[in-house]
């Protein structure tokens, strides 16, 4: 959720609003509500932020590109040189491969 006091956007990553009395993230509240058999609140897709698990490199990343269909992100990193591919639909790391030398650039060909 984003608030804009004085034209500065402030994001709350855990889902609780600044004036909320609950310290639990909204996804946990929805999960508990659904588990109790009650009707779960509708999820608001627009305006949400989704984080990709493992979207990192130990040292640094040189290049990040996405596939033409937008389903995967591909990045190269330094020390130890490697290539990582993330599945954007599942928000997870699909695989990583280490290389013998630094990867300067790469091309994503359409399938």
Would you kindly provide a written description of the structure presented here, covering whatever features stand out?
This is NUC153 and WD40 repeat-containing nucleolar rRNA processing-related protein. One of its GO terms (biological process) is maturation of SSU-rRNA from tricistronic rRNA transcript (SSU-rRNA, 5.8S rRNA, LSU-rRNA). Residues 16-100 form the Nucleolar protein 10-like N-terminal domain. The chain has 111 residues and is mainly β. The chain folds into 2 domains: 1-49, no CATH class; 54-111, no CATH class. Helices cover 9% and strands 28% of the residues. The chain has a 4-stranded antiparallel sheet with strand order 3-4-5-6, with no helix packed on it. The chain is elongated. The two termini are 36 Å apart.
Taking the sheet with the most strands, its summary is: 4 strands, antiparallel
Number of helices: 1
What's the gyration radius in Å?
A: 19 Å
In the predicted model, the low-confidence regions spanning at least 5 consecutive residues are 38-44
Strand content: 25-35%
Q: How many strands in all?
A: 6
Number of domains: 2
Look at the helices and sheets and give the structural class.
Answer: mainly beta
Order of helices and strands: EEHEEEE
Instruction: Report mean pLDDT, rounded to a whole number.
Output: 74
Q: CA-to-CA gap between the ends?
A: 36 Å
In one word, what is the shape?
elongated
Protein name: NUC153 and WD40 repeat-containing nucleolar rRNA processing-related protein
Domain Nucleolar protein 10-like N-terminal: 16-100
